[in-house]
From TrEMBL:
It comes from the Bacteria. Homodimer. This is Probable inosine/xanthosine triphosphatase. Mg(2+) binds at E81. It catalyses: XTP + H2O = XDP + phosphate + H(+); ITP + H2O = IDP + phosphate + H(+). GO terms for molecular function: ITPase activity; metal ion binding; nucleotide binding. Residues 21-184 form the Non-canonical purine NTP phosphatase/PRRC1 domain. The keyword Magnesium applies. It comes from Cecembia lonarensis (strain CCUG 58316 / KCTC 22772 / LW9). Gene3D superfamilies: 3.90.950.10.
Amino acid sequence: MNFPKRRNIQEDLRQKLIIVGSKNPVKISCTEAAFHQAFQGSFLVEGLNVSSDVSDQPYGDEETFQGALNRARNSKNVFPEADYWVGIEGGVDLIQDEMHAFAWVVVLDSNDHIGKAKTSTFFLPKAIVDLVSKGMELGEADDKVFDRSNSKQENGAVGILTNGAIDRKEYYQQAVVLALIPFLKKELYTV
């Protein structure tokens, strides 16, 4: 007779620790909201200053994804006692001479399983494109064009350009939830 596997109630009730590979309050907040949205339970979400090991302004899917993966892995190396590690990296790329912005999210768990997702994309205005093309980071370009300061720790380009209809936290949060799919549906993924 096969009995159902007994669940470890203590493990289910234990607060899970999630480390975000950034001290950016938007990245920490969107991660916390996404974990609460996707899972039941209690979570403690903390940020760490770790390197993405890519350019300050990643260019293209590959470099941006690598930055998110590196942030998650570097966080795990610095603080291996956590339950999950999250890397979020924003990037830009060109499609027919038009620049668009996006971000990659990578989530690792303590069993070396991985979840990954990409945000939606949006095209940037010429004034910002010109500055980024000259080597300026997108957040700095936003600040210069819109006469702001530290917008990447607030609503970011997406919030500024949508007049607040979509803020940076909301924009990233959806991708974090999508990156959690392999952990939500373990039976369907070889995570």
